[in-house]
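Notes from the pairing session

We agreed to fold both candidates in a single pass and log them together. This is the raw record for the first candidate, unedited. Please don't reformat it; downstream parsing expects exactly this layout.

Candidate A
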Amino acid sequence: MADSLSEDDVPDQINRWRGSSSNGSPTKSLHLLAAQAHCRQIALGHYENFLVASVLLPRSMKQPFYNVYAFCRHADDLADESPSPEIATERLYDWQQQLDRCFAGHVVEHPIFIALSDTISQFNLQKRPFDDLLDAFRQDQVKTRYANFAELVDYCRRSANPVGQIVLRLAAADSPENIALSDSICTGLQLANHWQDVRRDFQAGRIYLPQDALAAANVSESMLAEPTACDAVKRVIAEQCQQARQWLLDGLPLADRVPRWLAADIRLFAHGGLETLDAIARCDHDTLRQRPTVSKTRQLKLVLRAMFRRL
């Protein structure tokens, strides 16, 4: 029953427990179980790669990962699925206020925060990475162009790197050296995703290709609206892909510095990012004509490689 709870079902389930409780309030364990089931459903129902990665996690680590993922997924949905940037910003600020209350030790009734609060306490999670994520989501509502690569890296610092920092904390492996390597992988993954989605982002009104790189290649924004990329656009994308590749390669040594169960996931995602860059190269860096993807066969090989290396 718990696995099929929707967000709307969770308060109803808690109220039913409250009604049957002798003191008029649900027990903490039942309250938490419903919230955890909600987070688990979000994590396993929204993102295929997360579902695959969760197979590699120890049983004791699955629920904490589900709880963190549910927080990130909900924030991402607020940012991308709201009717307007103004409404998205308002909803993200409300989510920020609930996060502030959660870290301050106050009771927050939203099921995601009920579950996340338990994980925060269990692993002594720091607030800064969560704040950075929400800051990046809010930035997406107002900033649609990046003057140079440094600006883009700063965006990645808040939109991608915090996820790796939280994961390292869950694994008790968050040394400064490991965080630096994780940041490199997360930035590389974010960049690879941007260059895979140049057309999709442009249609959403965003250009992540640095403005100075476009100007140096005499590429105008109108060229990004074409059905296929001209040679100049492809050269810019190729240059950006090379930088993304280097970020991923620079971070790969992290897999040799963390628990084996986490090393498997790190290799899976880092090599997945490299495979995405290879797919972009195979289509001659024309991500206006098509969105390059990694084949199911290649994905399976990556997963099997990660699983065997964990053994």
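Candidate B (folded immediately after A)
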Amino acid sequence: MHELDASPSQTVLIVDDDADILASVSYALKQAGYHVLTADNGEDGLALVKTNQPDLAILDMMMPKRSGFLVIEALREEYTDPIHIIMMTANEGNRHQSYAELLGVADYLHKPVAIDTLVARVNQLLA
């Protein structure tokens, strides 16, 4: 788990087991003025939600310790006012996207995701 030094009012949590994605998305969102938290697995991501209450979470679907779906299910059970969630995945299956939509994700993006597209979507959701 890592917390980057930023002090804006809105916090974005990024949970992905790919270190390159964590680094690039974190950098871009920090440059856009967000406070950024990162975790490389679902368990650590859930712990960060509980201690930091981010405004938005960007989750990978397939991760160690707890998948993005299991993280979303836990968040939906625990919080009555759910945070915005963007799910990113390299999986092309429609079944997974349908389940993500059923769980109420704000967006479902296929990797590779253009960083400017992701930042624009975060800006829209947190506007």
